[in-house]
Design a protein that fits this description.
Distance between the termini: 23 Å
CATH class of the domain at 9-33 and 82-290: Alpha Beta
CATH topology of the domain at 9-33 and 82-290: Rossmann fold
Helix content: 25-40%
Largest sheet: 10 strands, mixed
Length: 460
């Protein structure tokens, strides 16, 4: 498909000043097909595709945009559809981050960078993914759940509230809300909403967000700042503002010349710009900063806010639903049983006293009478112990029916809870009652489209 992008005249004038002779190449690139890229979840599915994204080990370009909605492995969290340029944050993490850390993805919805971060950190590290808009926070929680990592927490808070967690995080990622100039060929709405006034408002909002969140970063901690826009105000000028007002040090990130990444427009400030006429991706800006000062250890943990546990602990039968259960703390929250890495449990309770949590760790399930109903979070967890469940491998058509939350009939299967798999990857649970199987797939996650392809969709 060809795109005919009508750029706002004031935007064109500004970009012509920035790009000079490259401006015509830039405009021509906006009228070409959008590149499509995905990133694999190596904990669930290992394969290699034809064209690797050079700055992301598990990132790949696709030849065309398929119907992701009708690929069961997409819903099982085997890969994430993510814009290629934004995967560059992997380079900064690999170069500067090592060992056990606590990391915050501040503006995380719908979850591209968070799922990437979850794949890069070790199992004893903590990832907190936040989204201030509640509806988007629910989508974020869904995508984090599908990715399957137990060391994750999803929150729904304003940056000013998170800033009260003083000196808590080693790394903070701020993919700041911006004027969206880099999305012009992807989102026509971004063009109609663009104005110089909006650029100014975005810059001011970004600085307010950065000032609010700065206290939660430890001294010596890293802040990864990015936007999907081109202008100087929201990019280099904000980096200079953080350097001059917040005392941040701007750090270089290794990038190979053949990747086609452009340097900063501010002399002496390392930053990384992605232009669609030079790199295979959308517009993107990235800079890495380090907080100055002596490293400090705060003692501001509150004594309140402990999770209330049931008097009778969860039986070993249900703890065995996950592998390595000895490494987890099990607790009851709002009638559901959860498992969270024990090494991070105190951190979870500390976060709980300040922030509104949407999801955390693994939700194992809940009791209804004497019946324990397993949760979708358990089915998609990377530490699910499949051996304790009866499993049933389904074909593509049955998998789509399940993901549409339709009732199923399973041949020659015992009554009770059964784990459905597709290409040996867990999809979710059903309760087989004999003449049919009740579908336990979350209602809010179901495929709503009725335009089901005639042929099987297979992407990886």
């Amino acid at each position: 498909m060809q795109y005919n992008v009508n750029l706002p005249p004031e935007f064109s004038d500004r970009m012509r000043l920035l790009l000079g002779d490259d401006f015509d190449k830039f405009v021509a690139s906006l009228n070409k097909e959008l590149p499509v890229s995905i990133r694999l979840n190596g904990n669930k599915f290992n394969t290699e595709l034809s064209e690797n994204i050079p700055w992301c080990a598990d990132g790949y370009y696709l030849d065309k945009r398929p119907q992701f909605t009708f690929d069961p492995l997409f819903h099982a969290g085997c890969y994430y559809v993510q814009e290629a340029s934004s995967m560059f944050i992997e380079q900064a993490i690999n170069q500067y981050v090592d060992g056990k850390i606590k990391i915050l993805d501040l503006c995380a919805a719908p979850g591209g960078k968070s799922t990437l971060l979850a794949s890069l950190i070790d199992k004893d590290s903590l990832l907190v993914s936040n989204e201030v808009v509640r509806s988007r926070a629910n989508i974020l929680a869904e995508n984090i759940t599908k990715w399957g990592q137990a060391n994750t927490v999803v929150t729904n808070n304003d940056p000013s509230q998170i800033g009260k967690l003083e000196a808590f995080f080693d790394v903070v990622v701020v993919d700041a809300p911006c004027s969206g100039e880099g999305m012009f060929r992807k989102d026509e709405g971004a063009i109609s909403e663009w104005s110089l006034d909006n650029v100014k408002l975005c810059k001011e909002r970004q600085q307010r967000i950065l000032a609010d969140i700065w206290p939660t970063l430890k001294s010596g901690g890293l802040l990864l700042y990015s936007t999907c826009t081109y202008n100087l105000e929201e990019n280099e000028e904000n980096i200079l503002w953080m350097r001059d007002e917040l005392g941040a040090e701007v750090l270089p990130v290794e990038a190979k010349e053949e990747w086609g990444i452009s340097p900063s427009f501010a002399e002496g400030i390392p930053a990384y710009r992605f232009f669609p006429h030079k790199t295979k991706g959308e517009g993107f800006f990235f800079a890495l900063l380090r907080k100055g000062g002596e490293e400090i250890h705060t003692n501001n943990r509150r004594k309140t806010g402990k999770v209330q546990k049931n008097k009778s602990d969860l039986s070993i039968e249900y703890k065995s639903y996950i592998e390595g259960e000895e490494d987890f703390t099990f607790y009851n929250k709002r009638e559901s049983w959860h498992a969270f890495p024990s090494v991070l449990y105190d951190d979870l309770n500390h976060i709980r006293t300040y922030l509104h949590i949407i999801s955390e760790g693994i939700c194992l399930g809940e009791f209804k009478g004497k019946d324990f109903i397993p949760n979708q979070s358990l089915a998609l967890s990377n530490v699910l112990n499949k051996d304790v469940f009866t499993t049933y491998e389904v074909d593509w058509q049955t998998a789509i029916s399940y993901l549409r939350k339709e009732a199923l009939v399973l041949d020659d299967q015992p009554k009770g809870y059964i784990l459905l798999t597709y290409r040996d990857v867990p999809l979710g649970f059903v309760k087989n009652i004999g003449n049919r199987a009740n579908n336990l797939y979350p209602q809010e996650w179901r495929i709503r489209s009725t335009n089901i392809p005639q042929e099987k969709v297979r992407i990886i």
